[in-house]
Amino acid sequence: MSQSDTNLSEQLEDEEVQEILKTGTDLRQYSHQIEKEFKQVENKSIEDYIKESQNIASLHNQIGECDEILERMESMLMNFQNVLSNISSEITTLQKKSVLMSVQLTNRQSVRAQLSQFIEDMAVPEEMIATIMETPVTEKEFINELNRLNHKLTLVKELNFKESKSAPDVSDVLNKLKIKAMSKIRTYLLEQTYKFRKPMTNYQVPQNAMLKHKFFFEFILSNERQVAQEICNEYIDTMSKIYYSYFKSYSSRLSALKFEESVTKDDLMGIEDTASRGLFTKNTSLKNKSTVFTIGNRGDILNQQLEAPIIVPHAQVKNRYTFEALFRSEQYALVDNACREYLFVTEFFMVRSTQAQDLFNQILGKTLTLMIKNLETFIQDCYDTIAMFLCIQLIFRYQLMCHKRCVPALDKYWDSLQSVIWPRFEHVFRLNIQSIRDCDPTKFNKELGPHYITRRYAEFSAAIVGISEHFPNELVSRLLLELQNEVECFILRMAAIFPSRKEQLIYLINNYDLVLGILMEHTRDNSKEAEAFREQLSARSNEYVEEILAPQFGGIIQFVKECEQMVDKDQMDELRRQERRSLQLVANFSANWKKALEELNREVLLSFPSLLTGSTLLQLALASLVQYYHRFHKLLTPNARAQLVNIHVIMVEIKKYKNNY
Question: Of 196, 346, 505, 532, which is most buried with the most CB atoms under 10 A?
Fold first, then answer.
């Protein structure tokens, strides 16, 4: 019901219906009118259709013809589609064939390249045969063809291992060429080796020639080890004999250049100058006791002379050398030859590490043993401690030089040399210590100046400390400390023979000052030895100042010390009771102080041979006197203080003594 109401309301809202309802038209009449109009339109349309019937028939025929044309076109398009489908299939087939042909071409090219290289590697050209057979081994063409031959031999070995059927075709020719090449190379290398045997030969010339053609040995080693071993053995035998002969002769000639008289057991530090001198004893420069313990310019061999040219014996017949100078020349000659030899064998014979060391030992082992025995022969009777220590320092430096040249082959040799020298060095060092311990002070003259044993120690200690600065050693430090303690004990024992304390102090100061001066001249200021003697000198100097001030100014010094104790204990009444004593001291000082200064100056001048030491001690004494004078001035009563000489007057007088030194 609601649906019909909805439709009715929509129809009533129509414009036509609204118009009819407004005008009040009769619906039936209106309906007949509409039908009539429809009829008229229909009749009119029929008339129009009849008029256009021919056109419609023509259009119908044309549409039929179009249908036939479209059918034919459809047939043609279908045929064309089939043709395109066939073409696409053919293109796909051609593409597959193209890819296949490309793969086949790539494979053929790869095979062709490998096959061409293989044929080239396997083929033995006439040029190679002619060059190997006829060209001298030193020519560049021979070396180039030898490299090619070596490559072909290596390839054939690989193919034989793989059982290739192509290898036997060229094996015979290649083996014949190999034998011919090896024969020529062997002859050449042996000729170069035999050149070493000629007198006055410069070893570097044949060695450089062999290094230039080091591939020769590599070729022989890779193809015939027996021949390579033969060449190596021949070289080892030749060079071993040459080096042994050279160094045996050189060592013998060098030994003739030593000082005729060497240091003996009678040249120990504590032996008296007059001891053990026979009637027919000769005197040479080294036998002078001062040169036994003084390094002088001997230390130059560790610095500017370390790499100096070696000594040529026949050119230095008239000259004489210390042992360390001859040792340096011999060891430097060995370092130069051994380093060159080691680098040569490692490069030419292609050996490394253990093999290189073994080969080097075969060549130079006999020579090194000879040099160790020569050193043992000299060392067993050597008493020259400085010479032995310089030799040890040379060993350290030459070992470092070998390492810088990448030659570790001499390390055991250097260790052997040290094992020969160190025990003897320590033994002789301890003999020197014992000689000082055994000294009897009563046998020496009573002289206040520095003792000659003290001077020997100072020079010797400064030499050892200066030499060992770059390579410190615990054993050397320990021995130096023992020697220092023994020398200090000796100085104290020597001082004890003097009756008065002042003489003892003068003796101690003279000796300590000498040692300190020499140590500071040749070593660092802060060395342990210098520091120890500096403390001793300072303590003895202060004590000596008290001793020399006591005779002239002892009363004032004693007064100051006693009264200052009273002040510290607050005994002021007791201090005031010392006025009479202080007045006597003031009067005595005022009468005698100038004369006392002159006496003080004269005594210091006569007691110390060193002007610098005397001047230092005098200034120290005068400074101490001024201090005591100031302290004395503070302790006096106003009455006594007024009678005291003005300090400025005293200072003016003291300044006069500064110009004396």
Answer: 505
